[in-house]
Amino acid sequence: MRCNNCGNEVTTEGTNCPFCGFPLYAGYQQPQGQGYQQAQGTQYNQNYQQPQGFQQNQGNQSGSFSMDPKTAAIVCYLTWIGLVIALLSADRSDPFFRFHLNNVFVLIISGCIFGVVSVILVFIPILGWLAILAGSIFLTVCLIMGLINAINGECKPLPLLGSFKIFN
Fold first, then answer.
1. Do the Cβ atoms of 52 and 69 come closer than 8 Å?
2. Does the chain have fewer CB atoms within 10 Å around its N or its C terminus?
């Protein structure tokens, strides 16, 4: 079924178009004349555009949106919540996203290993503390490099950690 207002293909059985909100039932005729508005006071959008960074998932009939691979790669570097959102809404078969997802998981695992080693190093005066500082700076620089590479759309391996592959 096509929406009479925006012309998009509608696969849901709802009462309104999921793209523009126009009523879908057959007996409805849009009033003629300028200034037609919905009850809430907003005009129907004739040129619906999807949110930037999202695309409609063509394989899914529910009309759900999936995150653009570049946007998902950027988001997964930012926080744990961003990583979960990217994992749930991105196409995990995309090579660009998988590369950066691998980098994020390598950084997480390296950070966990470094945290365990830091517990031991903290008891070594000065030299241990300097090693903890150097390791923290290294992991932070790797995180920033990965984020910049994702923003620039590049797939450059991280220094020292780039050879580890969790995802093929």
1. no
2. C
- Which residue type sits at 39? A
Long-range CB pairs of 99-103 (<8 Å, 24+ gap) are 99/73, 99/155, 100/73, 100/76, 100/146, 100/149, 100/150, 100/155, 101/73, 101/76, 101/167, 102/165, 102/166, 102/167, 103/146, 103/157, 103/158, 103/161, 103/162
Type of residue found at 165: K
Question: Cα–Cα distance between 101 and 146 in angstroms, integer?
Answer: 10
Q: Which of 52, 1, 60 is nearest to 26 (CA)?
A: 1
CB 17 within 8 A of CB 28: no
**Chunked in runs of 10, what are the mean pLDDT values of the chain (168 residues)?**
72 70 58 42 42 49 67 92 90 89 94 93 91 95 95 92 82
